[in-house]
Every structure is written in structure tokens, then in C-alpha cells.
Amino acid sequence: MSTNVTEKTPTPAPAGKGGSTGGDGLLQLMMDGMRRNMRQYGMLIALGLIVVLFAVWTDGDLLLPRNVSNLVLQNSYILILAIGMMLVIIAGHIDLSVGSLTAFVGAVGAVLMVNHDVAWPLAVVLCLLLGAAAGALQGFFIAYLGIPSFIVTLAGMLLFRGLTEIFLEGQTIGPFPKGLQDVSNGFLPEVGPDTNYHNLTLLLGFAVIAFVVLQEVRDRRRQQEFALEVPPTKLFLLKIVALVAAVLTVTMMLASYKGAPVVLIILGVLVVGFGYVMRNAVIGRHVYAIGGNLPAAKLSGVRDKKVTFLVFLNMGMLAALAGLVFAARFNAASPKAGVNFELEAIAASFIGGASMSGGVGTVLGAIIGGLVLGVLNNGMNLVGVGSDWQQVIKGLVLLAAVGFDVWNKRKVGS
Fold first, then answer.
1. Max alpha carbon distance in the chain (Å)?
2. pLDDT higher than 80, residue 7
3. Helix, strand or coil for residue 261?
4. For residue 160, which of 103, 81, 88 has the smallest C-alpha distance?
5. Are 354 and 89 in contact (CB under 8 A)?
6. Which tens digit of pLDDT belongs to each residue from 154-190?
7. For residues 96 and 167, what is the distance between their CA atoms, to the nearest angstrom?
8. CB-based contacts of 49: which residues, under 8 Å, 6+ apart?
9. Is residue 167 within 8 Å of residue 108, measured between CB atoms?
10. CA Rg, the chain, in Å?
11. Is the bond leading into 12 cis (omega within 30 degrees of zero)?
């Protein structure tokens, strides 16, 4: 009796599941991970390429420690606005009033501190409350009266610009108290022995590295616990190495100059705080829900009117903070302050991955988008590109970012 035996050819183990990936396998893992997270990594890669381009074009001047510090100081107020604007856009709205509101708050702060000698900490609190009230007023019209955010904030843009002219009477008021100037232009104090580096900045940098690594590991474990797809181990480790290298590089640059700017610490607190809220808090999930699918969010019990109201209240408070930082940086409140700030914040949000339809975006993405614009501005100034061509280039970058988002969504849908 004969028996037919079918010979089976051994199947190679797939990369990452017992087989050896080698160099080609690791490259394939990276490409697969980037395809799945194109929105997240696309602008980060673009930022790196822009930095490299201008570093070469300026013979390294872009990456000088002094210029890196100036880059942070020059873009701090736009980055603050971009955080709030990202939340507004995720919720499916827009805010055209933030530039005028920053000017108005700066004007009120100048009148309080310069003309009426109000202590600057008290004046800061009052200005933040004023910004929150202005945002709440607009949020009320949008959320509870159903007026489109474009119309309400366009009216707010005109209203706050006019109030700025009224408060300042067409003049520039300054100077601000030194304490407030130090918040916008100052650096962390020197501590410890002389090491040719700023010791406190080094400690903060190492603390940030530890926090980033722990956060990434925690997020990966949480995804695994809920049986969600996670990147392959090698790609995850490569991401950790890249993050650590980036933070360490920036830390060493800042520590070799005057240390970390105070406003950078404020930005760090905002990024960590709002990032946590949008990732983990119920209110953050609700913001994504109403922007992604409002009817479904309502059916799920989301209080969409309250969430929208709070989003605009928060935007007003951040606009007030940006207005104080901007006025203190230039040591004066001007009727022309804040011009086009709303466009810069909106552009930073869309470049950083926000979607026109809402429901998509991250706080870190807003920072990346703001840095893309900031590096473009700084680099083009260093190489002597005129302001006319700067506007053209930034417009093309914004168009390319939104076009890439549309193309990516169509590709995923197909």
C-alpha cells in the first residue's frame, strides 16, 4: 500500500514575529509604521528637513545656542495661541478674534500696570480673567444661541480691535514692570557650581527625558492591555532614541547659552497639561467626539453646548496669556499688536495635523506646526529673504500641508 505524502516548504517567519528582520526588515517596519501614522510623523519629518536645510543654508547660524533661544522667545505667543486654536479646530470651529484679543488684553494690562500702578501679578490675574470672560461671551453665542463661530469671532475681531484703539487712545504705552518682562524675556536663574553649562537647565532636560520615556512606555503598555495595535519593538525603541536625542540636543544648546527661557517652562506646562487632558480626561474625549461626529456625540450623552462653551473660554484665556507675553516681550502695548496672529495660529494648527472637518489633531501637533512656521521665519530672515517672498513661501507650505491631509485621507479611504 502506497501513501501519498505532500511535501511542505517551510514558510519563513514574518519579520518581528520570530524571524530575523535584518536591515531591510527594520526599514520595512519603519515604512509600515509611518504609513499607519502618516499624519503624526509627516510634519515632524518636514520640520527636521527644514531645520537641516536652513542649518546648511546659514552655515550653521540657525543652530547656534543664541539663535535657538531667540527662536523660542520669538514664537512663544504664537505657540500658546496654537494650543488653544488646535482645541477649537478639533471641536469643529474656528476663532478669528484671537489676534485682536491679544492686543486688547495687552492694552488693558498696560493701562493697569503703567497708568494706574497696579501690581503686575494682580494685573496678570485680572487680564487672564478678562480673556476668559471674552472667550466665554463668544462661546455663549456659538454654543447656546447657535450662531456660527466664523461670524461670532469675526465680530469679536472687529470689536476687540476697536476696544484696543479706545483703551490706548492710538498711543503706545510702556514700559512694563521688570517682573513681567522677566517672564517673557528672562531665563532660569543660575544654580550650583560652575560647569560651563546652565545646571538647572541640564536637570530639567534630564527630567524631561525621563518623563518622555516613561510616558511612551506607559502608553505602549496601556495599548497592549486593551489589545490595541502597537508598533514593533524595534520601531518603538528607535522612536525612543530619536526623542531622547532631540530633547538632549535642545537641552545642551540652551544650557550652553543662558539656560532655558522662563516662557519655555510655561509652554512645557501647557503642552503637558493640555496633552493629558486631550488624551485621558473625559472633557478631552468629548471635544474629539463633537468635532468628529456631532449627532453621534449627542446621542451618546455628550453635552456639546457645554463643551463648546468651555473650549472658547479656554481659547480666550490662552489669548490673554499670549497677549501679556507679547506685550512684555516688546515692553509696550501697541494698537497694531496681534495683527495676523489668528492666521498664524490657524496655520500652525493645520500644518500640525488638524483637519478642516474637525475631530482630528493633537496638542503636540500644534507645537510642531508652530515650530515649522517659526523656523521658516527665522531661517528666511537669516538668509535675507524679503517679507514678500516669506508670505508666499508660508502660504505654499500651508497649502501643501492641507493638500497632504486631503490626499492622505483619500488614500486611506480607498
1. 110
2. no
3. strand
4. 103
5. yes
6. 999 999 999 999 988 888 888 888 988 988 888 988 8
7. 21
8. none
9. yes
10. 24
11. no
